[in-house]
Specification:
Layout lengths: L1 H19 L1 E7 L4 E8 L4 E10 L5 E6 L5 E8 L1 E7 L3 E8 L8 E9 L5 H4 L10 H67 L20
Antiparallel strand pairs: 1-8, 2-7, 3-6, 3-8, 4-5, 4-7
Helix pairs in contact: 1-3
Amino acid sequence: MFHLIVATFVLMSSAVISAEQISLTIELKDNAAWCFMHEFERSEPYIFTYKVIRGGNKDIDVSLISPNGRIIYKEMRRQEDRLKINSSSGVYKFCFSNEFSSLTHKIVFFSIQGEEIDNLAVEMGIKKPSAPTSAESSCNIVHESMTKVVNHQKNYRLREAVGRHTAETLNTHVLWWSLGLTSIICVASISQVLILKTFFTEKLTSLKPGDNPQFGFPRH
């Protein structure tokens, strides 16, 4: 029975995590901008992180606008960053811009999550018990551990995606460089053969009557 209660709480906590923690991956075309608006219902610190996974120099313009229209964060051509937001209740706007690029698209990952892991009861909209039972304490421990695992796996997948893209790009560059060197070597080899062939090719001139065809000298 206890294991069933724990499993139920874990499933419910997973649903709450997916609802409270926001993680998105977007694609920005060249000369494009995109904004995401999120309403914070509670005044508490949040962590905003972003990272450019692929595209060009992996840089982007990022700005964060508070509910009263004040720009509280703005960075130009940044690859990644981690920002703590002491938010108040209201709608915040997170904007990403690739307007400075006219050729490459950008793939950007960003997430918004609370700095501290909330109690299960708080996340479910229930008043936090002053004296939790052993089952509730165990469920909270499992919830915190699962949240840390989810965050760790998210960061690992992000690093893996960046590393895979870097490896694919490097592999493409090495392939084209190898093809270029192979072409140069082939052209140089053929050119050397043709040049050497001209050195050893006997040029026959027209012989006059009475000339010695063996040595090419006239008879006296």
